Structure formats: C-alpha cells, structure tokens
C-alpha cells in the first residue's frame, strides 16, 4: 500500500474488515502483526505530531470553547497564549467558523462540531490527516455540505488525507483514489483512480458508473462473508 504526498485517499471495505485498525496502525496506536509502516522512509513506531486522527465522534472538550479546543494542540507544542490564539484563529477561519470561536460544543450543530475537530487537527500542522468516518453521524444534507467544505480545505492545504468511509458515493466524491479492501482478513482488492474533474457532479454518468463498479466489488466481498457464515452454521 502506497500513499502519495498531498493526495486524498479514500478506503472502503466490508464492515469488520479492519479499516479502523489500519488507521490506528498508521497513527501508531497499534502495531502491525507483520511488516512495517513507513512515513517519508522512516518506520512508524508510535504516535507522533506528523500524524493526527479525526474520529467519528467529535472528541471535543466540552469545557473549552471553539477557540480553546483548537488551541489545545498548540498549547502542547509550547506556543505562547497569544501565538496559540493567532494560529488557532487562522484555522477557525479556514473551516468557516469565524464568529463562533467563543461558543461551547453544546451550542454547536453536528457539522460545526466536526469542523472544530478538523480545525484542531489542521492547527497541529501534521503531514498526514487520518479520518475515521468523520461525517457518518451527520444527516444527509449536512454530510454533503461537509464533503464540499472538506474538499475546499484540502485544496487550500494540500495535506495528505487518508479517509475511511462506508459510503461509496462519499469515497468517489472526495478521493483522488479509492482503495477497496476485501473481507477479513483484509487485503487490497483494488485501487481505483478517480479521474473525474472537481467539483464533481454526483449524478454524472461517469460518477455513477464508478460508484456502481465499487459497489459491485463490495457486494462480492459481502457475499463471501455470508457464504462462510452459512457454512459455519451447518451441523
């Protein structure tokens, strides 16, 4: 598995195949059972400031404001309060939350909370953003809006993003490439280039064709799981 600098790579696969485990290995939170993971030629042996993970849950500190949440990683880096405020505000503006910096998480919508989590991750200035289904808890309209915003932010920052999702349409909309994993134990079934110009039209024939191609691949893997399950249940 190779990930290119500055690319937006989406990963899809059947439930339980190990997508989140893969992200945790990349983050240095778990160790691989074999092989190694390299970042810029150096092995990953644990968590580091060059990688930041954005989770499905917003993981915000409820006692901190938007500004306070985004400042958190900057404070850990040892920046002065004024430097941290200045840097945090830059990313708050980037995700479109200027004017909300003094609000607390309970005062924000789901989409706004996820933008705070994204701003906090970006403020740490990592080389790689690891995103584990970060939009799955949002309603359909907010999710589509956040996908559009995420592409704009990625286009401005050109961070390397590895994005796990169960939503094939989301993967085709966001990714430069879509990596399809097999059922567990996961292997790479196919890596598909998404050669569709941005901004992408979800109803264009080439978009729908690619979406269906990936869905067919996943259906094959799910059928394998069901066949194995049926065999194991036989007396």
Which features does this protein show?
8 strands, single chain, 2 domains, 235 residues, alpha/beta, Rossmann fold
Description:
The structure is a single chain. This protein has two domains: 1-50 and 127-235, 3-Layer(aba) Sandwich (Rossmann fold), CATH 3.40.50; 60-125, no CATH class. α2 (66-76) packs across α3 (81-94). β7 (177-181) and β8 (188-193) form a beta hairpin. The mean pLDDT is 93. The longest helix has 29 residues, at 205-233. The strands form two sheets. A six-stranded mixed sheet has the order 4-5-6-1-7-8, with helices on both faces. The chain is built from seven helices and eight strands; from the N terminus they run βαβββαααβαβαββα. The protein is an alpha/beta fold.
Mean pLDDT: 93
| Number of structural domains | 2
Largest sheet: 6 strands, mixed
Please give the CATH architecture of the largest domain.
Answer: 3-Layer(aba) Sandwich
Oligomer: single chain
What share of the residues does DSSP label as strand, in percent? 5-15%
Q: In terms of per-residue confidence, which ranges show pLDDT below 50 for 5 or more consecutive residues?
A: none
